[in-house]
Structure formats: structure tokens, C-alpha cells
Amino acid sequence: MTIGLPRLESLISELGSVVVAFSGGADSAFLANVAHRVLGPDGALCVTAVSPSLAAEDEEHCRAIAAEWGLRWTTVESTEMEDPRYVANGADRCARCKDALMVALRPLAAAESATVVLGVNTDDLGDFRPGQAAAAAGGARFPLVEAGLSKADVREMSRRLGLRTWDRPAGACLASRLPYGTPVTAPRLRAVEMAESGLRALGLREFRVRHHGSVARVEVADDELDFFWSHRREVVEAVKAAGYDFVSLDLEGFRSGSLNRLLGASTR
């Protein structure tokens, strides 16, 4: 880990000017912070792509972090919802999202004579992530991967640097809560967003609300199961308030990418 940070700083310095795709998660926040320290605000522009797939709370989190750290930050509209292939929610959904992201970021990068960089770490390479290939094809670089940094490395270095994002739970776009084959629509995204916001307000930190028509399947981290059960009635009320008729607890617990096993399946 001690070798990784200087290597990352060197890589960013060599790039000279970057546009950081800034979602506010542990990885992109760490990358943005390092880029800001190495290149200064003139050389590091942090950009949050705004679309119906981004929860309003996440956008506000990015705004707050940028202000707190003095980042040069802006938002840009991402138009993946205008792509029928994205809306169809096939196995290539993430690729279509990254295509739209790169279309939105490239003009900013061109104006800055900068390289688009994403907060992908080495652990991400082992999952089904078609968006990574699409971003790379669009000209993006992954400095964390190039520096050999894992998720654990990022969290530990963030902690040492005093970044409050060091233990932020892993996040993903709202569309990732819909099984492949279930069309991505604004009402479905809002239902998931409202349900997760309600559970977060109760005190849960690491969880997902998976959308299965009228059923919300909730995945909760093992160390939060006791809290979940002790607040079961409040959980049900919060999720039903988002429009779901039934609330279920997934006994396998929280795991990123759990819907990848259902590739090709469809739901109502």
C-alpha cells in the first residue's frame, strides 16, 4: 500500500490534466482527492454525471464533498435513458451507460486537454463489468488499476489521508437494482431510490433494495441483520411507502452484483 500511493501520484502527474468521473464513492473520491492534490484545481476537474439513475442523495453527497475538499466540481447531464438499449436492460446495460458517460465527459476533457479517469480498482476486474470495456474503448484511463490498488488499499489509504469517504459503503446506479430484462423506467428507479432512502434514514448502511415488480427484495450486510430485525416494522413501512406491496429479506445477505447470476432472465 505504501508503494501504491506514490505510483498513483506519479501516474496522475504524468497525465498532466484529468477529468475525474466523480460518483462520490470511496474509489472515485480517493482518486479525485489525489488528483486535486497532485495537479491542483486547474489540472483536475471532477464531474458528476446526473441522470434518473443517480439518487438525489448521491448528487448532494458529491456536492458536499467537493465543497469540503475544495475540488473544482461540476455536474453534467448523462442521457443513457434516451438509449433504447439501456432502457431494455440487457446484459450490456452498463456498457450503454458508460457510452453515455463518455459522450458527456469527452467535450469537457477536450476543452481541458485532459484525460478522463475512472475510479476502477483491481477488485472490479474480477466481476462482470462490461462498462469498464466501454469506458476504456471511449478513451478513459483507470489509474487505480494501473497503480495496482485494490478496494482494501483504497479504503486504507483514504483512512490514512483522513478522508471521510474511506468507509462509505459500495454504491452502484439505481438501475443495478432491476433484474436484467426488466425495462429501466423513471418510476421504477424512483421507487428503489425512495425505498433505499427510507432504510438509510432508519440507520441501515450496507444494503440493496432489489426490484421485482410489486416485491422488494432487501439484501442486508450480516452485521446489520440484528438491526434489521429489531426494526422490522419500520423497514416494512419504509419500503411499502415507496410503492411496493411486499417486502422480503434475502437470506444470502448483501452482495454486489447479485443480479448478474440472472443474466437473460426477465421479470414483469
Strand order of the largest sheet: 3-2-1-4
- Residue stretches low in confidence (pLDDT < 50, at least 5 long) are 264-268
The ordered string of helix (H) and strand (E) elements is HEHEHEHHEHHHHEEHHE
Number of DSSP helices? 11
End-to-end distance? 46 Å
Taking the sheet with the most strands, its summary is:
4 strands, parallel
Q: pLDDT average, as an integer?
A: 92
Structure class: alpha/beta
As a percent range, the share of helical residues equals 40-55%
Strand content: 5-15%
**Spatial shape:** globular
- Rg of Cα set: 18 Å
- How many strand elements? 7
What does this structure look like?
With 268 residues, the protein is of the alpha/beta class. The chain contains eleven helices and seven strands. It has helices at 4-15, 26-43, 56-69, 84-88, 93-112, 130-137, 143-146, 151-160, 186-202, 225-230, 232-240; strands at residues 18-21, 44-50, 72-77, 115-117, 207-212, 215-220, 246-249. Strands 3-2-1-4 form a four-stranded parallel beta sheet, sandwiched between helices. Strands 5-6-7 form a three-stranded mixed beta sheet, with helices on one face. The longest helix is centred in the middle third of the chain and has 20 residues, at 93-112. The protein is globular, with a radius of gyration of 18 Å.
Relevant terms:
alpha/beta; four-stranded parallel beta sheet; 11 helices; globular; disordered C terminus; 268 residues; 13% strand; single chain; three-stranded mixed beta sheet
Secondary-structure blueprint:
Elements: H1 4-15, E1 18-21, H2 26-43, E2 44-50, H3 56-69, E3 72-77, H4 84-88, H5 93-112, E4 115-117, H6 130-137, H7 143-146, H8 151-160, H9 186-202, E5 207-212, E6 215-220, H10 225-230, H11 232-240, E7 246-249
Parallel strand pairs: 1-2, 1-4, 2-3, 6-7
Antiparallel strand pairs: 5-6
Helix pairs in contact: 1-2, 5-6, 9-11
